[in-house]
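question for whoever is on the cluster today: can someone run the full assembly for these? two chains, 729 residues total. i dont have access anymore since they changed the login thing
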Amino acid sequence: MSEGTLYDKVWERHKVADLPDGRDQLFVGLHLMHEVTSPQAFGMLRERDVEVAFPERTVATTDHIVPTEPAERERPLADEQAETMLSELERNVEAAGIEFFGLGDERQGITHVVAPEQGLTQPGMTVACGDSHTSTHGALGAIGVGIGTSQIRDVLSTGCIAAEKQDVRRIEVEGSLDEWVTAKDLILTIIRELGVDGGVGHVYEYGGPAVRELDIEGRLAVCNMSIEGGARAGYVQPDETTYEYLRGKPFAPEGEAFERHREEWEAIRSEPDAEYDDVVTIDADEMEPLVTWGTNPAQATGIHEPVPDPDDLPDGKREAAREAQAHTGATPGEPMAGTDVDVVFLGTCTNGRVSDFREAAAVIEGRQVDEDVRAVAVPGSETVRLRLEEEGVDEVFHEAGFEWREAGCSMCLAMNGDQLYGDELCVSASNRNYVGRQGSTEARTVLSSPATAAAAAVRGEIVDPREVVE
Amino acid sequence: MSSDSDTTADLPEHGASVERVAGTGLPLPGDDVDTDQIVPARFLKAVTFDEMGEYAFYDARRDENGDFNDHPFNRPEYRGARILVVGDNFGCGSSREHAPQALLRWGIRGIVGVSFAEIFADNCSSLGVPTVTADRETVEELQSFVADNPDAGIEIDVRKERVVYDGREVEVGIDDSAQAALVDGQWDTATMMRANLDQVKQTAAQLPYVDSVDVDDLPDEDDQSTTNADTDDASTTNADTDDASTTGADTDGDGGSEE
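^ ran it for u. tokens below:
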């Protein structure tokens, strides 16, 4: 078992009791909530006549079902089911006294974008949310876990989850990422190396020079996709980059309190002699922009590398690769570069932050979206959108021919009407390329960084962003 | 098409012991079956789980014209199946509890697989559905047995960690705590953990950040309360959220913010 890691320390601090079944009762320091997975949990509380135990430790917003077209955000929403869900959330948070960033609030957006940028997520916290991408919050040295609705019921009624401690795998990333090779390319490489189930039973601690060099938004992208590698949580040690990011955030401590907390944050870092259950080393120096060729996030390849031939793959991966290629149309032996693109989607809890849109803007500036491409930019939060509009970055997207939207999960999972049609191929700065994920069972999703997605938008085909900007 | 008309009549009751589940089987080949396949996101737009059984593998079960294909969940021989037999990393992806809810309401009461994604397995435990594991060879053998004998009974014995079929007993794995919770009928974690609310408040009071991010507190109020829980006397009467806390010590640090 690991010892002396940040994970061990955070666990110890939040452990309330041993449960009879052998699990630990763990206090949840920050509970994030959205409209899709919470209504049934409130229903369970009502059935049991139990009230919310720690309303002040829960923050809610709305992201999955909200329209992103400005005109469609008027209430009541045109989609009656969406309106019902949103109204239900509004009633529930109102009755329980839970802070809510609703439609029209400048803080509304995707839970995993909102909490870090508001300073709600802080080092050493436990974070839970009814969403698998809660791993995101590890970027600030917190332990974030995705939970199901029955566990949301647990958090609401007790402030806790029943959990079992996992093994800790240190992922040491040596070297340095090239310009235009991004945090997204790094995490896709890690998932490709370790597999979509490689992290089951593990928490990932990301470290090493290439991780230390990442800004917080890059670290958020890396930790976000831990779950895509099977790890329920992933984290980066807090450091100066973390503290500077937090300074001045609305819910972060201020002044003297900030300094006091900073000492606490330092203290929860993994010890230099911490013991890990497992250490994996990855080299960032040779990394290039990655794209997926299949129907899970591990089925990825360098943009110029040939798509693997299923016959060359190990037994357990062969049939899945064949099926995936039959779906996506990727050709074994050929690179993904040059593949025609129908749609480009920028946004999500992975890549919907200010720096992601700046990165994409740098690629498209002075260029036009290809006439055969539908390109959509959806800021991860209203805070992100307003910041980009202040900077004039939105103009770059407007001028290039992108649709510029308001905040939500949008086409990542196509619950709000933003979706793919038929067998469209979408280069998407999101996190999942599962069959049907973006709203059409015939459609194809190619995951990439925002820069690579932006490059695809202006060229109409998959292309190395370095070839577009040079 | 649900597996039969009465799939929700015998849903596991909270706090009931789940020592064994039994019924006919349903083999579902393939690895990394994600929860988007199990329930596509568009069916999450419902504020209850009641209808979820209708949406189990909704898209995978239909061809491009929307007609039922030969997906195992459509095949008449597996109608009424209770035991699902799956591959590696089943239930990966989204944390949606809608996925096990859909399987449960379709009729599934236990799952045998090579491995399960963690959140999915947790969600199953929360619902009283055992997820047990065996090596690939064992699982594939069971899958072909079920395919050849769709009417044969299969039993998951949670206590003995065995799957019993065809006159054999096969050893399977189950997470220790999931096993304990199911066998002892303590998989209703909310009730179990609520008994410890006083301890929860003590743990929370020790956390350096508990006062600092209270969303209703102004930052300068935090400065005083962070290290000084007993200055919050005003809030000790503020225990209207639950009975267990009326004994005093308000340690959740809400500092009267409920006004």
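summary bc i know u wont read the tokens: Chain A touches chain B through 97 residues (CB under 8 Å). The two ends of chain A are 49 Å apart (CA to CA).
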